Recover the amino acids of this structure.
């Protein structure tokens, strides 16, 4: 146990209708600990979760703030519905900060018990500001009403050791381990910009600490830059009424109905309880959507080697509850137990690997040309324990591998690492270098945006090619879906607030397969409704998977099955049952719209958030190279004929690629126009004062920013 | 010719829903099939014949990720 | 293993068992707080109560359900977080909840209803499994 630097007592606030109405401010630089009131204004305009995070963050930073400025904050909040136990997916913590990768606010969310336990300890939100000189552990005991900051130098850095040790220490007994949750990063987070946060929960059946990640945008890098080694919260006594909801009977009724649906239908639908999100690997492969070798193609015959069945039969323990918060009967947080590591500092040890999730199998698998489940799980484990966002890692390494194969970078640049597609050994060595802070791994940890510059300026790479194949937008790496044939999804990735992450919209089936949204206006509506609807999960502390990874048996009878209307109504009803308010489906969208536009203006305030920042790399829109074109030649030739009235038979390959590109880039611009219009923004992507007024966000602080750009 | 999700597809005698799904590569399980607007339950895929000129909708339900 | 069994052919549907159960565990004459429920289906009486199958043990999101030394499936009320997952997942529909209780309830084969049944239509079966 480290030396105690500061300790205070407090009286945990009683929760009223989902809110404790208090937030906690900790400055790790001067060890100030303060309590703030959560105001009615905050609840009205920002609801909670990501809304509260962004509000506090706005007030903490200036346009000059950089990710490593002391005033940059890590803010986390669970939202008013967070911590109820009767519905699935109600334990998400939302985290925001100015991102090292993008320079604008990042929002990322994680399961695990931290957020709900933090709220029940009396805190709707937690702000962490300042920078410590030495590593700290921050401990919040919600039963005792105690906050303690102590030296943390002596603890290990890697999460699988650190979280286990802290859980044991602060629990005091095996029985109390479930009441402790730890937020930590890992040894690589000090050396890379894509460091992530692990949120723990104790699994009493496996008798091990499990982790879920707020992975995107470099939050772990900031945590370690602040010299925070871990946050620990302890709260004992979880019951279904702790939010003191307005109408617990309604929550019970909706919860039981939903659990029954899960029991009756999951096996026939997505099989989330068996395999989790990785259920879609072969589906994505079949529909040409599984990103392969840096998003060049949408699948590979070898994908069958990493099929869901391989993971189910050979790795994942079945039949145990795998929820990352109480009451989640979707139970998708799968784990491979007794997994023997073959490389790195823990080689030879048997560990529990949290995963693989779909993004992991696609990113660390097919997108790196690696079709080996052992290698995927081993990379998964090391990304987690070292504190590396595996999506940014995977997409960055895919980019590096393509640069290497196209001889844009050479062995003398990579320190001899033979970073060809498929070389799992090289990828694992890269991860170990990130942990040790040495070699090419540190360079790779900068992420694609900075690497493009380094490769061009120092290694003489072709800037045009790198701009085309580097799958980043706003500085954030794309998540793992090939989407060249879905214009709507191209917008779903690029026309986002934080950068290309599919949590705003996943429209590929609606657009490309179902052909449900053929016109620009249809697509623009979808890129209005879905991002707003999905933003709402982050305001309330919810996971989005229970919304549509299972649907009611009669969902097909509804007018809008893609929206899953009954589940949307569940959310409206639960929100009202917890808070006592009376919102409807329109107001739900409006709540999100307020925060969504606030975040957009925040981006503009930080020097981004305009049309030029929403541009997509051409790899996202269409075939960059001759090989890519030729691999789907029939499709692209047909499009030249049908969409442009050209005759591919009389065109050279270069002409065909150029004509396809001109057409697709134009389509993307037209889509951007339509989406901005639908969202109430100018042609440059700036929310208009009229729109801000209409949604009740004509706050002087926002108007002042947008007026400079009209 | 028939229409599948508004795109033209060749038709042949004896084509049923299951065969069409197989030919289209629609392996995703979570779908809603309608022929000329009429819902076809999964149990009926093999028995439900598709006639020339039919309008088939195969709605993939994930809005996912 | 101990399990409550119901003899349909003898049961008259008087539902004394329900009252005895709710009285014993909740000190109230409220059939909705009974862990055995008698349903009248055209004058044959069907009883819904736990078969002690134990499916709920592995799915419990709080690891709060266990089988005791008599083979009876029990809820540890201290550990239970009231998520009601087990209620939705019970294939026998015999895990119950009440809005004024924080945790669900179920038949624990205690035999109070057996003694209360005027027709001797209920019994506790004991098997080795």
């Amino acid at each position: 146990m480290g030396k105690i630097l500061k300790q205070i007592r407090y009286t945990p606030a009683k929760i009223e209708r989902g809110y404790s109405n208090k937030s906690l401010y900790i400055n790790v630089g001067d060890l100030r600990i303060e309590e703030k009131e959560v105001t009615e204004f905050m609840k009205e305009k920002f609801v909670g979760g990501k809304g509260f995070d962004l509000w506090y963050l706005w007030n903490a930073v200036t346009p000059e703030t950089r990710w490593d400025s002391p005033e940059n904050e890590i803010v986390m909040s669970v939202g008013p519905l967070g911590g109820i136990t009767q519905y699935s997916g109600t334990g998400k913590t939302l985290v925001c900060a100015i991102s090292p990768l993008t320079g604008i606010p990042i929002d990322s969310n994680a399961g695990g018990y931290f957020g709900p336990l933090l709220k029940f300890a009396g805190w709707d939100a937690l702000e962490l500001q300042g920078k410590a000189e030495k590593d700290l552990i921050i401990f919040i005991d919600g039963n005792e009403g105690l906050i303690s900051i102590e030296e943390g130098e002596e603890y290990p850095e890697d999460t699988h050791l650190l979280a286990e040790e802290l859980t044991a220490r602060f629990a005091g007994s095996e029985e109390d381990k479930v009441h402790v949750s730890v937020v930590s990063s890992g040894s690589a987070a000090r050396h890379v910009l894509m460091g992530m946060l692990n949120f723990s929960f104790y699994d009493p059946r496996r008798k091990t600490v499990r982790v879920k990640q707020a992975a995107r945008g470099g939050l772990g890098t900031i945590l370690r830059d602040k010299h925070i080694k871990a946050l620990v919260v302890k709260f004992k006594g979880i019951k279904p009424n702790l939010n003191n909801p307005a109408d617990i009977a309604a929550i019970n009724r909706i919860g039981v109905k939903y659990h029954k649906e899960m029991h009756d239908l999951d096996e026939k639908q997505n099989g989330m309880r068996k395999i989790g999100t990785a259920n879609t690997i072969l589906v994505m492969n079949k529909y040409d959507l599984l990103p392969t070798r840096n998003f060049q193609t949408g699948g590979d015959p070898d994908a069958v080697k990493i099929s869901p069945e391989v993971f189910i039969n050979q790795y994942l323990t079945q039949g145990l509850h795998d929820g990352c918060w109480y009451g989640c009967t979707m139970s998708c947080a799968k784990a491979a137990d007794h997994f023997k590591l073959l490389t790195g500092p823990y080689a030879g040890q048997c560990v529990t690997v949290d995963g693989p999730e779909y993004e992991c199998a696609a990113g660390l698998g097919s997108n790196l040309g690696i079709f080996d489940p052992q290698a995927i799980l081993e990379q998964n484990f090391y990304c987690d324990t070292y504190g590396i966002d595996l999506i940014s890692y995977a997409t960055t390494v895919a980019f590096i591998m393509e640069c290497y194969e196209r001889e844009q970078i050479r062995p003398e640049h990579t320190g001899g690492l033979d970073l060809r597609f498929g070389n799992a050994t090289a990828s694992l060595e890269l991860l170990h270098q990130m942990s040790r802070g040495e070699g090419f791994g540190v360079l790779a940890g900068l992420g694609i945006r900075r690497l493009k510059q380094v490769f061009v300026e120092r290694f003489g790479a072709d800037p045009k090619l790198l701009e085309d194949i580097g799958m980043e937008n706003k500085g954030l790496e794309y998540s793992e879906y090939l989407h060249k044939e879905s214009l709507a999804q191209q917008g779903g990735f690029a026309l986002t607030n934080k950068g290309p992450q599919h949590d705003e919209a996943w429209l590929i089936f609606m657009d490309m397969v179902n052909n449900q949204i053929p016109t620009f206006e249809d697509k623009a509506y979808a890129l209005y409704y879905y991002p707003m609807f999905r933003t709402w999960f982050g305001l309330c502390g919810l996971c989005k998977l229970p919304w549509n990874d299972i649907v009611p048996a009669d969902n097909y009878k509804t007018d809008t099955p893609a929206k899953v209307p009954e589940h949307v109504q569940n959310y409206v009803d639960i929100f009202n049952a917890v808070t006592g308010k009376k919102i409807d489906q329109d107001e739900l969208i409006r709540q999100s719209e307020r925060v969504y536009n606030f975040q957009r203006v925040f981006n503009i305030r930080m020097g981004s958030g305009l049309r030029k920042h929403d541009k997509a790399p051409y790899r996202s829109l269409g075939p960059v190279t001759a090989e890519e074109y030729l691999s789907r030649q029939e499709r692209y030739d047909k499009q030249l004929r049908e969409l442009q009235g050209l005759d591919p038979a009389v065109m050279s390959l270069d002409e065909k690629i150029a004509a396809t590109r001109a057409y697709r880039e134009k389509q993307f611009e037209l889509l951007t126009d339509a989406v901005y219009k639908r969202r109430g923004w100018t042609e440059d992507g700036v929310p208009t004062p009229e729109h801000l007024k209409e949604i009740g966000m004509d706050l002087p602080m926002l108007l002042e920013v947008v007026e400079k750009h009209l | 010719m028939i229409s599948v999700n508004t795109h033209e597809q060749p038709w042949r005698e004896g084509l049923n829903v299951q065969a069409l799904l197989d030919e289209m590569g629609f392996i995703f399980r979570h779908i809603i099939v309608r022929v000329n607007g009429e819902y076809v339950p999964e149990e009926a895929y093999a028995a439900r014949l598709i006639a020339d000129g039919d309008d088939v909708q195969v709605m993939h339900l994930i809005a996912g990720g | 293993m101990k399990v409550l069994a119901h003899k349909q052919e003898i049961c008259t549907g008087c539902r004394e068992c329900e009252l005895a159960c709710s009285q014993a565990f909740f000190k109230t004459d409220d059939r909705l707080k009974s862990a055995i429920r008698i349903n009248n289906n055209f004058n044959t009486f069907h009883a819904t109560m736990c078969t002690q199958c134990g499916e709920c043990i592995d799915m419990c999101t709080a690891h709060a359900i266990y089988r005791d030394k008599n083979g009876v499936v029990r809820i540890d009320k201290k550990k239970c977080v009231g998520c009601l997952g087990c209620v939705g997942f019970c294939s026998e529909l015999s895990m119950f909840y009440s809005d004024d209780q924080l945790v669900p309830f179920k038949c624990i084969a205690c035999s109070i209803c057996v003694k209360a049944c005027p027709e001797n239509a209920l019994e506790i079966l004991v098997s080795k499994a």
